[in-house]
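Lecture notes, unit on protein representations.

Consider one protein chain, 363 amino acids long.
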Amino acid sequence: MADKSTLGDSLRRHGVSRRGFLKFCTATASLMALPPTMVPAIAQALEKARRPSVIWLSFQECTGCTESLTRSHSPSVESLIFDHISLDYHHTLQAAAGDAAEAAREAAMHENKGKYILVVDGSIPLGDPGYSTIAGISNLQMLEETAKDAAAIIAVGTCAAFGGLPQANPNPTGAVSVADIITDKPIINVSGCPPIPTVITGVLAHFLTFGSIPELDQYNRPKVFYGQSIHDRCYRRPFYDKGLFAETFDDEGAKAGWCLYKLGCKGPMTYNACATTKWNQGTSWPVESGHGCLGCSEPRFWDAGGFYNALSVPISDNSQTVAFAGAAGLALGAAAAGINFKEKDAAQKAHETVTIDDLEKSS
């Protein structure tokens, strides 16, 4: 259970030096996309922060969200943070089972009433309470009971945030998201299938540091991680701007690393931090490995049409202008560059803003 020691006390007990603590604060600032000038404030806040109790509930899900979290490399900011919260209940990770496990959940709720963080992964079936139960308790009942006295709720993964795969047509269980049921508590959606582990821990770090939830977007996702599209952060974006696209997964364009837009990449309408945070110790991410983004952090991504159908076709092929500029020589170079810049600027202004509604268009 959560004790009354501060995070600073806990770090010292684990042999973390002052220098190590400041390095941790610097990493935390980076994790939350804050400037280095915030490090002293973060250090002061974390020194006095109490270890929060965290209750993690898993409903209709595949365990991928927990797998993602536990696959984070060690030592890491993630493990450090999780060493210093009190994870009082987690179906998959806890040793206790049955009545003992439920007793632990109830004790954590009672001892930390109004202060604990509730993390939920998986959707909740409303078609029949018997579709998914834990210790004889329906998912709906357990969520309502546990959310009642939570300080904040983090919906981890697209299933908890938006219904996800269980909600895909024909939605046989009547699956809904956490926000469809709980309407009187702050909910932070950390969407993704699965979500990036550093995003999960980044949200926890923000709550630890400031005692509040981070700024959220229209889907209640932290703007610091979901504020820009995959497309805008993608290292292949310059190829898109030049009109250079892979036409198949094994053509010369694909081998050269050209844009995967025509192969169905949903990067333009997907907001997530994959392109910058990456996976597996920052090694790579789907687009870097040669596959387009599936849009898994967006609502209803599973029913949005074929994964390999392009959203739309760019309105201008800037590559023709670039080729013209090269052939014109030095005398016309400046003028051609100006034309190219003008066309590129016009193309950027004319690009439609791709929204989730575009996914509902028939391909």
